[in-house]
Amino acid sequence: MAENSKIEWTTHTFNPWIGCTKVSPACDGCYAENLMANRYQRVQWGAGEDRQRTGAANWRKPIAWDKEAKASGTRPYVFCASLADVFDNEVDDRWRNDLIDLIDATPNLVWLLLTKRIGNVMKMTDPARGHRMLPRNAAIGATIANQDEYDRDRLKLWEVKQGLDPLFTFGSFEPLLSRVALDSFAPDWIITGGETDQGSHKARFTDPQWFRHLRDQSAKLNRAFFMKQMPRKQEIPADLLVRQWPIARAAA
């Protein structure tokens, strides 16, 4: 859950628990909800619903990945989490502390903690509130679907960068729902992509020029840029097939 992830910008995907609440336009066609709530009926999505912690065998996988990385001298990326949000208000603080312990215990892995709740990160990693500090091998990312979200969250992500000193920061501009103008507060890594169909939800329109605009701004601001996919699995134009990483990672 899952080794050798199919997500192009990571090596592995790890889900410490499953379940979330929609809080962004990016959530409208939620892959995780369509898979785990609608298809498998494993959890209920939404506020006040229980999150389901994954099993012990799943939690042991990163330990094995770390040992392999140490032996090979590589630094694999681990995306956490595709089926939940690490900084979800509904999650038991003890679960999050257990996750931080696991990240601390796997220093050869680069942990990508992506959230739609970037405003929670500072307080949920504050020892004065009884929380564990953010490990040095963790990168923090925010989902940013449009200009309004960028304007709202860029300074929150910058605060995390300045206050917690993560390995790097990143923005997941996927699904990209509008043209976005970056500035000097842009995250270190710009990941972007179009939407895919999810159940009854059909992929929304994305203009290729929006991707080109992010690519060009990333170059000017000295940010790494990663183009993941076009909407509806269209082929990526050759000039947009740019895939950069902030630091070296293991080969896919």
UniProtKB/TrEMBL annotation:
Q: What is this protein called?
A: Gp37Gp68 family protein
Q: Which organism is it from?
A: Rhizobium grahamii CCGE 502
